[in-house]
Structure prediction request, 312 residues.
Amino acid sequence: MLLLVLVVISGSSLWISSSMSAGAAKTLLNALGTGTLISAVVGFGQTLITASASQRALVAPVIEESRRALQELSAEYRSLNNEFFPTDVFEATTHPDPKFNRVMMADLNATRQYFFRGFSGRHAAARLLLSRTERELRAVIADPRDASSINGRARYLLRREEAGVDYESIQTRLHEEISIGLVGLYLARSRCAQVDITVVADPPLDRLEMFDESVWLTLYSDIGGASTLYPRTLRFTEGSFMYNMERTEFLRVCNSRTGRHFQITPDTSRRDFLALFEKITGNTLTEEQFLELEAKFHTFRREFSTIAELGS
Prediction:
């Protein structure tokens, strides 16, 4: 406003003086107009300089501080996402997701330790035979000598079966799956430095597969996906809360003094395995029965490889 007043006074003085004859009055008006014009120009320059300095002194630090705060907040949110949220979510389906199996096999091929917790271990054995590298396998499976292990899984499967399916037939099938899984783990010993097996009564319904850099949870306990063949699966990376929690719990079970622990090595003979099979299941396995279970496992492996699009 002050600059505008000075400009108006300067312009008016110079305009009036231009119409006056030479004399003291004209000289005075010219001096007044010129002086106020110079004052306006100098004042405008000072205003620009002051505004720029104020911008640098006051506004710029606030902007920089806000930018830093936003960066720290973004970093905190990224940290929370990495710790508590899955990197991949595979929804429940009635058909296998090829991406699911490709990503899991990539994690398996890059790991030194493979931790598996499930019902029978058939899938772990099949994946190992599809791999070409050696690793350590630790498997926690259901105890076939404990009725609650079989009955709990049978009740879950009964909800997905047709009305005419017999409960006893499901139990028989589950016993056979455990036997096939044990034979499969024996056959996969060539892919492992050693195979540690822990059998537990009534294991958690959800399947756990853990690698060096990730953990996969297949949620059979998810009621929303109970009617689908392939339940919802979550993948968490190493360093996340879920990875550390599941790894701690898994190792606690594997190292428990009260658990039933067994080991298969590449040097384990057929006779040694038959004796081990009897210790785990309580049933004697003849050579003919072994060959029958071996054939069933290879049939399962081929079907699994074809459906999952993993090759042979």
